[in-house]
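Run Peptidase S1 domain-containing protein through structure prediction, thanks.
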Amino acid sequence: MADVSCNCGNSFSTERLATKRDTDSAEIYKGHEAPPHKYPWMAYIVVDNDDVHCGGTIIDHETIMTAAHCVHDWRDGNDYPPDSIKVYVGHNDRTNLADADLYQVREIIVDSQYTFKYPIEHDFALLKVNHAIAYSDKVSPICIPEENTMDYNRLTVAGWGISGATEDTQMNPSDVMKEAEVDYIPPEECWKMKQEWYDGADKKYGMAIPPPPISDLHLCAFDRKTGAGPCPGDSGGALMYQDANGRYFEVGIVSGSWGNCGQRLAVQLYTKTQMYHNMLKNHTKACVMKLHT
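Sure, done. The structure for Peptidase S1 domain-containing protein is below.
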């Protein structure tokens, strides 16, 4: 892993997140279009011959970090063939990829404890690409925090997920990258919100539904006021914290939720990146460094 001199987490956009917490917009749920190249580490992941698209992040010259469920075929219990996975970087518009940098995946490294069950745990994967990722003002890595010793307060999530929020809305992926601010939800509050959501689900479905556990591998976040946050298609993307020096750190990987995006109390679960220092050390040259507060 890298030392503190590592060059990571630098946004090349001077535009700040347009926070409009009182407005509705059909994007990364209640988010807004991200300025071009504001998040140069963001990757768009597509699996050939399947309706699978996810987010990911560049963490070194040959590695994309994402969610394990993005590269796992739940139908047969195997990972997708590496050569069936394409990674696009250096772009915001997924419908116009001609100017994006394209990489083929050559190797998939998944947490050995990962299983496809809900809530997903150990939802962590590294994708090794077929040639070195060329850095530029459009393409660069994100930082990984060294420790999880603080409450993050406001965080940012970005991705190309669906425009709809519920089962009653057509689920169309966003053409361009969206961003949204979300609140860090402490574990105790997250558990209470989950319990309340499942109490309501019992009434909706007419049967008792036991709430799934929240483990130490999970980080909870969503916007308490608007419900803003990721939707299907945003999986694997980054939950980010910008420190006092302006660097962006990926504190979580978009994993899932117990409800539809935008539903009241449907807090989003993220895989804590701090739990994977050993995998990062053994398989990458990721920039793992201290946050400045």
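The first strand starts at residue 32 and ends at 33.
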